[in-house]
Amino acid sequence: MADDDSFSGSPLLSSVYGAVRRLLGSPSEVDGQRFFSRAAGRAETVVAGGQSVQLPIQYRRADVFTAFFTAGRDAVARLLPGGLHPVNMGRDRAPLAISGVNYLDTTLGPYGEVAINVPCTHGRPAPAIVSAALQTFLPGFGFFVVHLPVTTPLADEVGRSVWGYPKFVADMSFERTPGYQRVRLGEGGSEILSLTVPQRGVPVRDNRAWITYATREHDLLRVTAPCRSIYQVLPGGLGVRLELGDHRIAAQLHRLGISTRPLFSLNYLYFAALLPAGETVDEVDRPYRGHRPGARDPVGRVDTETQLTGAPATEQAPVVWQ
Question: What is the pLDDT of residue 289?
């Protein structure tokens, strides 16, 4: 773990980061190896891409930022395998999260990742909620992973073979300044998206586990990842900027009816996590594998093309908001 004065290479960020850590939790509790040793659980070794990988994977340091938008609930529901239901925001809307993650220190090596996730519940559909901030309290809550592009072949192979995450290798560039974090994502010369999230908001310490859902063959897996984090919450996402490009995934986001304004954004000042093996919680008739480069069916479930409907965003080519 890097010292405070080397955090993201900025003395200003270092001082702010150190002050927030002192207010919200002692460094020995947040940074130390105590978290990794206590929360690690059962260790196991898997083979992926011809390499042995130790589980759980340790994520010791990362730059993380997220923006929550809304999309058409019916269109989003068509992406989900049986047993999962999108969070109901009312007015036929459901939340949709886009995250940029620059993993700087992990047991899988450094790599970048962009996550497009649908907040959902497993089991019975949950009642409508008035605020997306309440979604994590719903029974069976987690994030269904729609797309998870990464920057290294090893991260791609491990994610797909162990958890069924819909990963593919893509081009990414990350930028972190005192004012914002940004990721630019593309593949094969085609731009997918650019996401910018301000580095401001109300600081919150959150030690809840991060729960994701994915399909591996005909199994629905739930992955419960212990986390330690401190982030800034910015209601309304003022200053968030999303640009959608000409890639097929960008077109999919258009068809899902992604909103022109975010609900809120999260800017992480500290993030550490463990990623263990998942557990089977249900069976699905058709696995969801997401986008694969060169595939004729670029998005959605296997052996069928996902039909995407819903009210389109008001700005179409490209969507830009701030």
Answer: 87
